[in-house]
Design a protein that fits this description.
With 120 residues, the chain is mostly helical. The protein is built from five helices and no strands. The protein is 68% helix and 0% strand.
């Protein structure tokens, strides 16, 4: 419902901040750390929704909500079949790799990666 869409919309800004922090934009470490925390908060909300064992965020089939979450989570997950060129995780510093791997290891991260594997 609207809660799911709010969670997904709330994901946009923090994910973009982290993605931009990797580039030429001047984002402070404090801002990057806050963004990482914001993303983990959204991932926790998604995990709460999925916690009852459902396979998808809304209903019992793949919807735009699943696609949206997976697409917005991609900048911190690096799905194998993303569909366009993205850097490899090992191109980043060990500290940054550790953050990305923490996202990948969450239930929400695994959910988004599954969406890419099954619906891309």
């Amino acid at each position: 419902g609207s809660f799911v869409m709010s969670c997904i919309a709330y994901t946009v800004v923090p994910l973009l901040r982290v993605a931009m922090a990797r580039g030429a934009m001047k984002i402070t470490q404090k801002e990057a750390d806050k963004s990482v925390g914001d993303i983990f908060t959204v991932f926790e909300k998604v995990e709460g929704i999925l916690g009852d064992g459902r396979r998808y965020l809304v209903g019992d089939k793949f919807t735009a909500a699943d696609l949206t979450f997976a697409a917005l989570a991609a900048p911190v997950l690096f799905p194998d079949n993303y569909g366009s060129p993205v850097p490899k995780i090992d191109e980043f510093s060990k500290d940054t790799q550790a953050i990305f791997n923490k996202f990948r290891d969450t239930d929400a991260g695994q959910f988004a990666l599954r969406i890419y594997a099954e619906h891309r």
